[in-house]
Amino acid sequence: SGEEVEIKxxxxxxxxxxxxAGWGKRVLISAMAFSTHVGVKELFGFDVPSAIDISGINIxxxxxxxxxxxxxxGHEALEKAANELVGADFITNLLLIGVTDGEDNVSKxxxxxxxxKFASSRKNESFDxxxxxxxxxxxxxxxxxxxxxxxxxxxxxxxxxxAAKFDQYESAKDVKAGTY
Length: 180
Description:
Blueprint: H1 2-20, E1 29-35, E2 39-47, H2 67-87, E3 93-100, H3 111-123, E4 129-136, H4 153-164, E5 168-171
Parallel strand pairs: 3-4, 4-5
Antiparallel strand pairs: 1-2
Helix pairs in contact: 2-3
């Protein structure tokens, strides 16, 4: 589908930017997929951009959206990797980018739990900084979950950004490569 192509293109762009920007061995990238169809699974673990090959990765937008569970799992993996680096005397800056084609409709993790995880990381003086960005694909469409009656996906994700205390929310149509 169009969403799958767009999400894969974004992932390719992040990895390509990492290779071009000369991040070399100073940046590690990881990616996870999520839905009720796949649960929350790692597409590739933390690795340097030059070692990542996403050509064989298939993105699927099939299934219900467990967005908050995926963001919490991704955050936990990111924090664990960062703590290991801090233990080896590396300076760490955390960046969590969540990309979704729809509103959350099946997560067990609450928005308050996710906000608390973010707040805890921001207070952790071991990390140099932390930035969280949520990106929505298909944002102009009506939210499908009845809890969000009358709202677009963009409205719901904007509300989530505020409630979970993300630093930033962007609609995919407004994202420009190399500007973040």
